[in-house]
Amino acid sequence: MQVPNVHDAEPIPESARAAIEALLRSGDLFRYTAPEAAPVSLLEAEFADLIGAKYALAVSSCSAALFLALRALDPARGARVLIPGFTFAAVPSAVIHADCVPVLCEVGSDYRVDLADFEARLEGVSAVIISHMRGHTSDMDAIMDMCEARGLPVIEDAAHSLGTTWNGRNIGTLGRAGCFSFQSYKMINAGEGGVLVTDDSDLVARAIIMSGAYEHNWKKHPVLQDAFGRWQNRLPLYNLRMSNLSAAVIRPQLPELAGRVARGRVNHDHVAARLNASPWIEVPDKLGPERRAPDSIQFNLVGLGDGETRAFAAAAAGRGVNVQVFGMSADNARAFWNWNFIPDLPELPQTRAMLMRACDVRLPVRLSRGELDVIADILLEAAAEAAGGLRVYAT
Question: Are 10 and 249 in contact, with CB atoms under 8 Å apart?
């Protein structure tokens, strides 16, 4: 069997074609043209219902959602915002855009927030953004307890976690606000796009106005109108709206989410079981309350030095599987030492050590069992070759 192409995004369902064609014929792509029932408005209602939140605001990206959620909290200029040291550069960027200061905490070898270091850095913080990076959920019970005891609002970066639950609740609904992505390599593919969810009517009202609901376009949002009235003409507009065309691409994919999540979980767990048979590969376990929705797999190389790690990545690539070693990919946006836009960028030795051995491989949910085994075989062979003395692992 040939090595599968893991870089194509999820295809757009045929059911979206009619809606897209109708929009293209009408040219009605702006979300506020129609007085009601615009595709973006329908998406917001459907997504809020799907995720179990009172309100949803569709915007141009998850980065935009993070920025708006933080701005809607109205932090003081220069406020300190605690984030994990392992996340995408968009997260500290959103903090900077909001005129705040990112404070980084250590992340463990399981890609989750180091709770002791997290608690030690809470002093003087005004808000927290928790990234469920690559869909790995940190201990949200402990994190929420610490933050609630100090009155700190939590924003969830759930870009990789649509469909993941914690103690039966959807990730993104545990904090004050949750932010999701519809970028091509996520469970739902719109190329770009994001959504902010919350139960806080005042927060969403502020975010709606700042997203670009100029003049009285906020009246087209089903939120308490008195929540808007307090903020009319008092907030800057950032124009981060989603278009009707993006919404028309997204909406037909919502009913497919449960199936994609179930297939992704089976695929991940099958490959994880295969990889964990190697003495040089470790796939961290999930936490007990977590039910994941993966479309990729992350694993750590064990007992391999820098040269052997590079040899592993090269051996896998030579066989047709591209492996991203987070700390060794040049200018990787997930390696904190490349975030040079942060003043006084700290050193995080534990997180750095993890990133130098943490590997990432896409596992699109459409892959067959045979294709998954091809990928697993290549990774196992590459690890054995890099470690010295090729071993053959049966499928």
Answer: no
* DSSP track, 10-79: PPPPTHHHHHHHHHHHHT---TTSSSS--HHHHHHHHHHHHHT-SEEEEESBHHHHHHHHHHHT-PPTT-
In a domain, 5, yes or no: no
pLDDT digits (tens, 9 = 90+) for 34-79: 767 899 999 999 999 999 999 999 999 999 999 999 999 999 999 9
CB 137 within 8 A of CB 166: yes
Tokens of 46: 């459907």
Cβ partners under 8 Å of residue 307, min gap 6? none
| Burial bucket for residue 253 (CB in 10 Å: 0-12, 13-18, 19+) | buried
293 in the same domain as 227: no
DSSP, res 371: H
Beta bridge partners of 325: 359
Please give the residue range of the domain that contains residue 155: 15-255
pTM as predicted: 0.95
pLDDT in tens, 288-317: 999 999 999 999 999 999 999 999 999 999
